[in-house]
Amino acid sequence: MTGSERYVADILCEGETITRIDKNIAPPADAEVVEAAGKYVFPGFIDPHVHIYLPFMGTFAKDTHATASRAALVGGTTTFIEMICPSRAEKPMEAFELWLGKAQGQSACDFTFHMGVTRFDPEAEKDFRAIVQRGVASFKVFLAYKGAFGVSDEELYRTLRLAKELGVITTAHCENADLVAALQAKLLAEGKTGTESHYWSRPPFVEELGARHLTAFARATGAPVYIVHTSCEEALRAASEAAASGVRVWVETLIQYLLCDQSDAEKPDFEGAKFVMSPPLREKKNQDVLWHGLRNGTIATLATDHAPFDFKSQKEMGREDFTKIPNGIPSLEDRVNLYFTYGVKRGRIDLHQFVNTASTNAARLFGLFPRKGTIQPGADADLVVYDPDYRGKISAKTHQMNLDYNCFEGVEIGGRPHVVTVRGRIAARDGKFVGEIGRGQFLRRQPTHF
Ligand code: URP
Ligand code: ZN
Ligand code: ZN
What we know:
This protein is α/β, with parallel strands linked by helices. It has helices at 65-74, 92-103, 122-133, 153-166, 177-189, 197-201, 204-221, 233-244, 255-259, 285-296, 335-344, 351-365; strands spanning 10-14, 17-22, 40-43, 45-50, 55-56, 59-60, 77-84, 110-116, 138-142, 169-173, 225-227, 249-254, 301-303, 383-387, 392-393, 412-413, 416-422, 425-429, 432-433.
């Protein structure tokens, strides 16, 4: 099953590559045969937005590349794209080396990066040019998090000009940082310190403004842009209007926005902190809009923005002040199963839309196609033999992520990878990691020159 084709056939993998697809292939004598009758075979899934090594809000995200890649593989994700998020003080090249060093030799699945542009000056620009040469063909900018990762308008303009020149796409967190800061200060001054206030510090118009801001700069520079973690109708409309008028803009949404909503972050006894991320979980009515966008193609990708912070020791930092709760709802392990269960099985998306939005489109947008994101001779043998009859429940007691909670605790899933391969070797089987830590490769990418 690919983004465009559906057929019954055998797939021969030799070494790390798919070499033949045909009916009744006689297996070579030394071949391991994986029986896939009654199952789907999907291309390995790609998560285009994860954080693993992440210094953020006074702490560090919990996963290592070993724990995160194990979780990814068990859940059917064979490639992830991590955000390199340096502080403004760090040199971009040193940050690239740092992030690469953390992943290489530790990740069990393949990986690449979006290079975070958190400062733009002539010295940094030289590094960005060299980093693109090293195979990182996408940037990441934050219009939020002023004083941490956020860039000024001048820096945004110069980043997009460089991206246009180099032919790379720029991914962007779109929220207006000044409005967030003003609303946070107002809420705290009114004594509104609880988790439910997170939403009101970043309402939909804050995200819409961010999306309109980014697309105006994209129009001015002609650079292609990609809006990460789009949560609401207003921001999606802003992106769609820009696209309709010729701006090259693509949209990502997250599994969390499809299945969780504003009320989760309002749970009592600080439980709501488990559901604090930015942009915030929205009113439930947005979920239909996002599903519709995934169906009709106005949303290109379904990611996780995986950013794990323990409930007991880390989310706790914001018990008295919601602005101090480390932002993030991890779901790297569960994205594919949840999307299959509540998307495909509930009839909200078809199998091709499922494969395209969870794998193929990310491969195309970020210069990985056709090595990744499809099943064809010559492609990497990253395959997910998927059991649509599996029934189970998500739990922190059984998950692989290095985290003391799971915001989908108790949620039922109706499908699971039976066998997952990475470049021809089995890395996960029926919920268990059987791969090799450190086998994951850094995927060098060429600029896509949209
Ligand atoms: O809440 C979020 N999204 N945390 C991770 C950092 C980011 O903004 O992507
Ligand atoms: Zn973000
Ligand atoms: Zn993120």
